[in-house]
UniProtKB/TrEMBL annotation:
Pfam families from the UniProt entry: TM_HPP (PF04982)
The protein's name in its UniProt record: HPP family protein
Keywords: Membrane, Transmembrane, Transmembrane helix
Organism, scientific name: Caenispirillum bisanense
InterPro entries assigned: HPP, TM_HPP
Parts of the chain that traverse the membrane: 21-44, 50-69, 81-114, 134-156
Residue ranges occupied by any HPP transmembrane region domain in the UniProt entry: 20-166
């Protein structure tokens, strides 16, 4: 009984071949540029716009831009929905140990239901609750920063002639 269950965990084959050094370098450069733009805007606006989940968003935006998880509606919508859920849970229940995991689970459910799944955004409720952030945090840095990342991705991902981003809005 346990052996067939454990056998499922072995996987079915080998990992796919990598996309190559050129793609890896372009993805790293794109992500670095996008985060630098957000950081520079933070300095210029004298407001923090850079949050840790954005680093993971850049992995999707620049390494796998064709993924449904990297489309603009998912990046911006996912971050916004998840941060909003975090704020609502914080206001409703405070910052008890169980609130952040419950909020993260609710944010995942909301992203799925609204068709804006963006895995890095799953961290937003944790950031919101740990930092004690309110509704203003949803607008800035979350939505503002996510929009800037998507804007940079629109430029960088469309520079190569053989690439088209986004797949859809």
């Amino acid at each position: 009984m346990i052996r067939p269950f454990l056998a499922k965990m072995r996987g079915t084959g080998r990992p796919p071949a990598g996309p190559g050094l050129r793609h890896a370098a372009a993805a790293g450069l794109g992500g670095g540029v996008a985060l630098a733009v957000v950081a520079l805007l933070s300095v210029w606006a004298e407001a923090p716009l850079l949050i840790a989940p954005f680093g993971a968003s850049c992995v999707l935006l620049f390494a796998v831009p064709d993924s449904p998880l990297a489309q603009p509606r998912n990046v911006i919508g996912g971050h916004g929905v998840a941060a909003l859920v975090g704020v609502l849970f914080l206001l409703a229940f405070g910052a008890a140990w169980w609130v952040a995991p419950l909020a993260a689970g609710a944010a995942i459910a909301a992203m799925v239901a609204l068709r804006v799944v963006h895995p890095p955004a799953g961290a937003n409720p944790l950031v919101v609750i740990a930092g004690g952030h309110g509704f203003g945090f949803v607008a800035s840095p979350v939505l503002t920063g996510a929009a800037v990342l998507v804007a940079v991705a629109l430029v960088v991902n469309n520079l190569p002639r053989d690439r088209r981003y986004p797949a859809y809005w």
